[in-house]
Amino acid sequence: MQQASPASTMPATTYVGIGQIKPLGAKFELPDAGGGCGTHGGEGKASCGSSGGPDDMPAEIWDKVKNHPCYSEEAHHHYARMHVAVAPACNIQCNYCNRKYDCSNESRPGVVSQKLTPDQAVKKVLAVASEIPQMTVLGIAGPGDSLANPAKTFDTMRMLHEQAPDIKLCLSTNGLALPEQVDEIVKYNIDHVTITINMVDPAVGEKIYPWIFWKHKRVTGYEAAKILHEQQMKGLEMLTARGVLTKINSVLIPGINDEHLIEVNREVKKRGAFLHNIMPLISEPEHGTVFGLTGQRGPTAQELKAVQDACAGGANLMRHCRQCRADAVGLLGEDRSEEFTLDKIEEMEVVYDLDRRRAYQEKVETERQAQHDAKQEALAEAANLGVADDLKVLVAVATKGGGRVNEHFGHVTEFQIFEVSRSEALFVGHRRVDLYCQGGFGDDEQLPSVVRAINDCHAVLVAKIGACPKDELSSAGIEPVDQYVGEFIEKAALAWFNGYRARIASGALVHQDRGDAAIRQGAYTAAQAA
Q: Beta-carbon neighbour count of residue 392 at 10 Å?
């Protein structure tokens, strides 16, 4: 009898284990005035959020999120976003941040290759929108703080509101200056605001923020964290009251705010947050951050998922974030910014054709509906399978977009991770990896790092895979699967899972739990690809 997925030999030491954190059981009331989303249906089932659809939320909310790749997990397979780097100044210091301005090979927040003026930014947006008609969202996310640079931020938004009315406008902020800028946000129809909130207790916050710049002076320690917290909560409440959708970003820092993020989730839901995005700390020493240089580690995959799962029933969770650069362009998980440098834009014939963009997006919606229908078909087949169990496993997927299994194992720089059960195939994250194929040949030295990145998965779905990596994965207990080429991811994952359950039921194999996996964040993936 074959055995499936032997237990990992990776170290099992974790600061927060799945069994150590209990899901939130309390019911929370939202403010009466707009913005947030409640739950219904028992067990904290989300009524809206990154995995929600038109039946899960009011029509006016669905219209705001349906083609926003950050606010809709389904949309992120099909629609693109871009950031423009017009906001270099910042009014706080975070121990996990070190802004760099000329680092084209690095993928993480606060990094840009070119800072832009508002006029340059608008020209770039129009150029990208003419070349990438599925680009639906423009965000300002730094490289500093958008609201510490209000003139540049709102000049950019004003011009885009006039010249590209179909593009959704977003901004990201630490929240310190947010309350004073809510009127301007609403004035330019900025419907989506992301606030980075890492604590609701200043005693936790002073371990994350060395200082803030407040009322023309630098404030440090507990007092700084208290001011920041009060401004963040006030700003969030004001945005909710004005009907602006808010996403809360939180950086999970083991030993500092990991368990505390459950309280953050509870408090931001009370104040009407639409989504909560819990991200892993990026702490490689080469980035030069305080946490990186002092040895503060980031979370493992299991630790991250444990905290996210513990927040079920609180604010709805976003799990498909890529922690993008401040000048990112393209689908989430890809970066085409090098195609749209200022010198290249000067050579382009920019024609902002609104009718062409709408026609292209209608085709995207047709493909999206096909993906949805395929998922429902696969779920129906799973329900009809005569194997009763509550089994859940993780599956890694090699994809280059469109929500399909369509990437060669050797070409992957990022796997998408799905948690599969008989009732759903749920996107739960992504894992960056070193490129295995280098110059047409597999680099076997990279294989162990790839295996570590998906070590908690029972299978990996690929378009094609060579003999050597196939053997390596099989030896590690990860089943390589190349029989679903071109299929929609959810349909393929559920089909594999149905077969897996059937093999267990027949006695052909024995299910075993997997080990933990290593999150590889802030990788120089573009350099590896080059």
A: 13
